[in-house]
Amino acid sequence: MAADEGMEWLRVENGGSFVVEDGSDGNITSWEAVEERGEALLRRQRVEQLRMWQRHWDERSAHLWQRHQMLHDGRIQLSTGFWSEALMGHATLGALVEPERDGPLMRWIRDIRVRTTVGTDGEPARPTDYHTVKEEREERAGEFVFCVVFDFDDANPFFTEDALEKVYRFSGEDGSLASVGCTEIGWRAPVGAAYWERLRRDAQATRASADIAAWPSLMAWLTGAALSAVTEQHEAREDRQQLVLAAAWHSDLEVAEMLRDQVCMTPQRCIRPA
């Protein structure tokens, strides 16, 4: 295939008009017009990248589900604290792990994986949509979705679920991040309830002293305490601009992408040699 086959090229004529080789043409009348054209090209690129990513991750999701099943039925064994070591050994995520807050819960992690469908065995998860403040949202055709899943030992004293999910939805129209959500957690009393209250207070304190998204700990990110604090502060100030919330979403997504691309598939690489 020729290098330029299937591509479109911008040609500027003497009169200042431009012609795009896909057959469309227009007139450059302002810098805003140039910016709009650039934004349109970026949106199309994001959608194409998401389509390719979704196909790629469907295969990875199947691999990670097989690994999860092998861990579940005992065909493979991990040492105690394996996932804690992998998370703390990661160059960036390790700085996010707060031993006092995260350690008690991290020791119960059995697996960390990613999938491109929402919910276990096809059942829908119960995501909290922070854009509409804890209102459940219907899945829309054309959206791209991926979930970061932390599987826990069901004997953990903190909550009733055996898995916690972070759900990321992207628009099929322009590839933008449409929503971020997490599993609604059934905290066990007294241990889990006290743990959640502390996470919530720490997240609120962090938000009160920061203008941009800052996560007080990895578990505050996973449980939704950090994004809840962003939403609460946003509402308390009666600030209707979406810039703060959008910044928090994208900061939250950065953590998920590091887990997805660098920890889930090959966690052993993150563990530092003794």
Main sheet: strand order:
4-5-6-7
Q: Which class best fits the helix and strand makeup?
A: alpha+beta
- Shape estimate: globular
Low-confidence runs of at least 5 consecutive residues: 1-24, 119-141
The Rg value, from CA coordinates, equals 22 Å
> Strand tally, please?
7
Annotation field: number of helices = 8
One letter per element, helices H and strands E, the order comes to EEEHHHHEEEEHHHH
Overall average residue pLDDT = 76
How many domains?
1
Portion of residues within helices: 40-55%
Tell me the β content: 5-15%
What is the end-to-end distance?
50 Å
User: Biggest sheet, open or closed, and with what strands and sense?
Assistant: 4 strands, antiparallel
Family: Belongs to the nucleosome assembly protein (NAP) family.
InterPro entries: NAP-like_sf, NAP_family
GO cellular component, one term: nucleus
Pfam families: NAP
Molecular structure report:
The protein is an alpha+beta fold. It has one domain. The protein is built from eight helices and seven strands, in the order βββααααββββαααα. The strands form two sheets. Strands 4-5-6-7 form a four-stranded antiparallel sheet. Strands 1-2-3 form a three-stranded antiparallel sheet, with no helix packed on it. A hairpin with a 4-residue loop joins strand 1 (10-12) and strand 2. Helix 5 (191-208) packs across helix 7 and helix 7 packs antiparallel against helix 8 (243-263). The chain is globular. The protein starts with 9 loop residues before the first strand and ends in an 11-residue tail after the last helix. The model is unreliable at 1-24 and 119-141 (pLDDT under 50).
